[in-house]
């Protein structure tokens, strides 16, 4: 078995779950403390002082610390938490803590084996994260739209910059993966490559993840228009290669394209461009990148932000991908479905290629409706399709930003996030320390902006929105732990079969009248990990069907024992039933239940119940 597969399984499927379980235990203990403080403010302080001053206190602390590496941790863990019973924790709480300690001890006992596997994996040669290789050669497909952008880029390439002390300018084209940066630059590059009256030399370089100055320098020098000798390839010295290249560039007005750049080290860029200081005034470098940081670090004098294609241009490109040589007007029903699909793809050419390619397999209504009803990430993808392109951007995120990004999957598309509120939500979920200053918190937002994962809302101060395609991608990488459905479902899918689903939000399903047995799926245990469940704005929902399973230990609507928070908001027809269920149920262990009736006038009814 591949060691990377083992390492990935251990890290994501077990350790992360255990960490979450430990966090749950800590949250429970915090809750118990607050509960006791509310009942008797003086009791906690006096007991805590007595424990802190007792001789056994320090011994208990030391014993607990040693438990993590002790093979005889069972009895020690029990001793370590025995003092907690002097507070206000029940036996079940203590057993939960002991269970978590045992599991951490078990991880420790296997950690040496795991580290050896990781060491073996790390010893493999480093491979660049790459999903394609680009060239300047035009493809067979027709070029659609981008008239204004093409005109503007051509204008930038021919204009002089008398204020610059360097003989060349850098122009950066920035946008999310799959938006068409390379296609636009390729079209403009070929215009000047064929028309040699302005540039004496044009060179196309695909950079990708590893910014190898030596390789890129040699590729520039070996371009066919320079007629360099092949023995340059054997040069091991970057200095020699740069001097040879500099001699050939001397007195030439040069156009160089650096496609798909990720490098954020200005020293690397400066090193690569040293020979360009010998080029003729008016030389240009075009950089395509997904990151505004990269654009700035590479010394861009102009930055072009590329967005999706305009509606009719996009439909033209999508039609070519979906219908091929067939005439869309001969398939009016498919054309209607196709136009509905287009609205979901945010003008992304690569998304059109991915979805259109899937539709093209069968020009049949049933097939097209099936694809139309699927999420982007549910459609079969190839290595050079849209999800692979977005995954590359995600892989370049630091870990602390990955969880912040995936969190967006819980909200509807085009949802506007106010910066202050977003930071508070990240803090509440533990993605950001409560003690972290606001400068760090807004640094997270700034980094996501720079990498094009979120965008500023036009004409709105401190408000942000997630690009539609990236919202779909956030759902795909949430690993089934977060899920939200809205608007276009008539019955609820079998979510109970998802073993790691922790948060489920169901909004605005105006045609759903009941939650039936299908919601629970066919798993032996339905919703084994579900902690938070929200129903909102379901106007026709009358309640749980009689076919729903009832759990003996939890009669309230058959909800899972793991559930901690239930919210039912603006669901008019089921309000009375829920209030009745809550009043008659005394055995459930949900920490918070919120049932809110639709607003009538200025009055809103709310019910909140906390576990005891």
Tell me about this structure.
- The protein has 612 residues and is of the alpha/beta class.
- The chain contains 21 helices and 16 strands.
- The protein has helices at residues 3-39, 41-53, 55-67, 73-82, 91-122, 147-158, 181-194, 213-221, 238-249, 266-272, 292-297, 311-323, 332-342, 349-360, 365-372, 386-395, 399-406, 419-428, 438-450, 468-477, 575-584, and strands spanning 168-174, 201-208, 254-261, 283-289, 302-305, 417-418, 454-456, 463-466, 482-486, 503-507, 514-515, 532-536, 543-544, 565-569, 592-596, 606-609.
- The strands form four sheets. A six-stranded mixed sheet has the order 9-10-12-14-15-16, with helices on one face.
- Strand 7 (454-456) and strand 8 form a beta hairpin.
- The protein is globular, with a radius of gyration of 30 Å.
- The two termini are 48 Å apart.
- Residues 1-13, 54-74, 120-129, 550-556, 584-588 and 598-612 have low confidence and may be disordered.
